[in-house]
Design goal:
By secondary structure, this protein is of the alpha+beta class. The protein has 6 helices and 6 strands. The chain folds into 2 domains: 4-141, no CATH class; 148-201, no CATH class.
C-alpha cells in the first residue's frame, strides 16, 4: 500500500521547487557580480512552506586524509518523512583576518547554501559567494538528480502501482528517491508501469 505521507512530501517539494524564487541581490565588489546567501534562501523558503512542512539544518566536521570539511545537511520534513540534501565546504588551515570560529561559520554558511540549492533546484553555477574569489572554501555539492517534473511523474507512478516506497529505495540502494541516478529513475518508471499494468489486468 502506498504511503500517502511519502507521496505528499514529494508533492510539497515539487511545489517549492516550482515556485521558489530567490533573487541575487547582494553584490560581490571584488568580482563585480550579484549573489545570494543561505539566509536569503531560508527567508524565501519560510514564506512558501506548506502547513506541516519544515526545514532542519545541521553541520558536522569530517576528515578526508589530512583535509577537514564542514558537512551541511538540509532536510525537508513532513509528517515524519524527510528528503535530505548535503554539501561540503573545505576548512582552510588559515585565512587572513579570520579566527577559527569565523572560518567554521563561513564554511558552514557556504555549505548550507549549496545544500539548499540542491534541495530546491536553485541555479548558482557562476556564484562564488561574497568574498574574494581567491580565498573561497572549496565546495562539493551533492546534487538532487531529479527534476520537479520527474519527481511528479515518479510520485504518480508509485501511487498508481501502489508500490512500497521504502522497498523501492532499498532495491536501488538509496536513502531518498532524490538520490536516484538518471538511469535508475528510468528503470524505476519502467518497473512501476509494469506493476501498475499487472494490477489492472488482474481481476479476481
Amino acid at each position: 500500500m502506498t504511503d500517502s505521507n511519502q507521496t505528499l512530501i514529494y508533492e510539497h517539494l515539487h511545489m517549492m521547487q516550482k515556485h521558489l524564487i530567490v533573487p541575487k541581490e547582494r553584490k560581490n565588489s571584488f568580482g563585480n557580480y550579484l549573489y545570494r546567501n543561505a539566509e536569503d534562501i531560508t527567508v524565501a523558503v519560510k514564506k512558501l512552506l506548506p502547513d506541516g512542512c519544515f526545514l532542519i539544518m545541521s553541520d558536522s566536521i569530517c576528515q578526508v586524509g589530512d583535509r577537514l570539511f564542514v558537512k551541511a545537511e538540509v532536510s525537508f520534513c513532513f509528517n515524519e518523512k524527510s528528503i535530505k540534501s548535503e554539501a561540503y565546504a573545505e576548512l582552510p588551515k588559515e585565512k587572513k583576518g579570520f579566527d577559527v570560529s569565523q572560518l567554521t561559520g563561513s564554511c558552514s554558511s557556504y555549505a548550507r547554501k549549496f545544500a539548499l540549492n540542491g534541495l530546491f533546484s536553485l541555479d548558482d553555477s557562476k556564484e562564488l559567494d561574497a568574498e574574494d574569489n581567491r580565498q573561497q572554501p572549496q565546495c562539493i555539492q551533492k546534487n538532487v538528480g531529479l527534476t520537479p517534473g520527474e519527481l511528479k511523474l515518479l510520485s504518480a507512478l508509485i501511487a498508481g502501482a501502489e508500490a512500497d516506497v521504502e522497498k523501492l529505495m532499498e532495491f536501488f540502494k538509496v536513502k531518498s528517491l532524490l538520490d536516484l541516478s538518471n538511469a535508475q529513475y528510468h528503470q524505476a518508471c519502467d518497473m512501476l508501469k509494469v506493476k501498475a499494468k499487472t494490477k489492472q489486468e488482474y481481476k479476481p
